[in-house]
Write a structure and sequence with these properties.
Blueprint lengths: L4 E7 L32 E5 L8 H4 L2 E3 L19 E5 L3 E5 L5 E5 L5 E5 L30 E8 L5 E4 L6 H8 L17 E7 L2 E8 L26 E7 L8 H15 L1 H4 L3 E6 L8 H12 L5 E4 L8 H15 L14 H4 L5 E5 L4 E5 L1 H8 L6 H13 L2 H7 L7 E4 L2 E4 L3
Parallel strand pairs: 1-3, 2-4, 9-11, 9-12, 12-13, 13-14, 16-17
Antiparallel strand pairs: 1-8, 2-7, 5-6, 5-8, 10-11, 15-16, 17-18
């Protein structure tokens, strides 16, 4: 089954906690601290797999979790690192944050491996907190927490040229004639249910990759019909070949068809509407009306828009060679790399933590109270009894803007500040 979109949940591993223990050996009555560090949690990593062309695997399994780091042990034993989880995806997969829809990374081009969520760092054992004034610290650092995200995976095929047009206009027949692709061809609407890729080889010129985008209909940009499911595959293409049934074998007007499809492309993405386009007036072999009159009508309508019209027959091969060499020239004039979607969302902001905090003055207790998950987390991994720890604590208060908040509330030197179980006097 072809699948080009999936929603999944991923979670990195939590860092192992540092250990609190002391040496207990014969003839060593007062051994120092020997608590080991926790192991690092596993990371969530995406990798491109050249052998994949669908996201079907992610339709069945939707939850992926890396392994937690092991806690530290006695005798300076470091906990085991958690195993990473590596998720294989086809080239061209765009990974988005589910809630905002913002792009995290595009698995195409040189981006073959991407660490989405780093595992939590293991906590320090109590051996790290021994000082000349505190030789038996009964405190160890907890491991950093796991990070989690809900993701949307979207496969956007990588092709130089996209074939668009209504169902049954001959796109699959055209692709099978000009490339090595072998799409299924039949006279039914939406016969093509997969975006088919084909490589076009040209004598004396560089080849290119063509994608046959499943048939669009009016309303596709609003989700009507199957065509909407595949519009994303046109986004990377540099040139669009608009295949139209010039003979009107299904009773439709080719000019109206072109306008209708272009309207759907524009409604889906304004960028798509600006892509260079060439019109392939197909099924000329089945045309029973005046050929020159039809081509004149098409040219009069679309030449002012910069679209050239090529009369072709995908069945007999008439005009196909001329069209392909024209498309090659268009690609040479553009001479740019395939579209790569830029990062809009950085999952590492989860590591920094955007946890809220509050700074308030408690009149009844005559003290300033600072609370919030961010504060509690900071106190959890800071040893305030060491000089280094206290310097780090002061820097944290300044960088997070807490000192500025206190000054806005009118704090003066000597006033009392409380953070959970910690109470201290404020001095500049």
């Amino acid at each position: 089954m072809f699948a080009d979109c999936a929603k999944i949940y991923v979670r990195s591993g939590k860092g192992g906690d540092g250990h609190v223990s002391f040496r207990r050996e014969k003839y060593v009555p007062n051994g120092g601290p020997d608590g080991g560090d926790g192991g690092r949690g596993g990371s969530v990593i995406f990798e491109v797999d050249e052998g994949m062309n669908t996201l079907a695997d992610y339709r069945h399994v939707r939850k992926y979790c890396a392994e937690h780091g092991q806690d530290g042990g006695k005798r300076n034993c470091t906990g085991k690192n958690g195993n990473d989880i590596i998720l294989k995806v086809p080239e061209g997969t765009v990974i988005k944050e589910a809630e905002s829809g913002k792009v995290i990374t595009d698995m195409s081009g040189k981006n073959r491996r991407f660490v989405l969520l780093s595992g939590g760092k293991g906590g320090n054992g109590n051996q790290h907190y021994a000082t000349s004034t505190m030789q038996a610290p009964k405190y160890a650092q907890p491991g950093q927490p796991a990070k989690e995200l809900n993701l949307v995976l979207e496969l956007k095929v990588i092709a130089d040229v996209g074939l668009v047009g209504f169902p049954n206009v001959g796109k699959s027949t055209f692709l099978s004639r000009v490339s090595n692709a072998q799409p299924k061809i039949a006279n039914y609407h939406f016969t093509t249910l997969n975006p088919n890729l084909g490589v076009v080889d040209l004598e004396g010129a560089k080849g290119f990759v063509v994608a046959d985008i499943p048939g669009l209909i009016e309303g596709a940009s609003e989700g009507i019909g199957l065509g909407h499911e595949f519009l994303r595959h046109v986004e990377r293409t540099k040139v669009i070949i608009h295949v139209v049934d010039a003979a009107g074998t299904e009773g439709r007007d080719p000019i109206e068809d072109i306008h209708a499809i272009n309207k759907e492309l524009a409604l889906y993405s304004e960028e798509l509407a600006k892509r260079p386009q060439v019109i392939a007036a197909n099924k000329m072999d089945a045309l029973f009306t005046d050929r020159e009159d039809l081509l004149k009508r098409l040219n009069d309508e679309f030449s002012p828009l910069g679209y050239e019209v090529y009369p072709i027959s995908a069945v007999s091969g008439e005009g196909v060679r001329e069209l392909l060499y024209h498309v090659r020239k268009m690609l040479d004039d553009i001479n740019e790399e395939p579209t790569v979607f830029e990062q809009e969302f950085d999952p590492e902001v989860l590591a920094i933590g955007d946890d809220p905090y509050t700074v308030e003055y408690d009149e009844s207790a005559d003290e300033y109270v600072i609370e919030g998950p961010k504060i509690e987390k900071m106190l959890g991994y800071t040893n305030l009894e060491s000089e280094k720890g206290f310097v780090f604590f002061q820097k944290f208060l300044k960088e997070t803007g807490i000192l500025e908040e206190l000054e806005k509330l009118g704090i003066k030197e000597g006033d009392t500040v409380r953070m959970y179980g910690l109470v201290f006097q404020y001095y500049k």
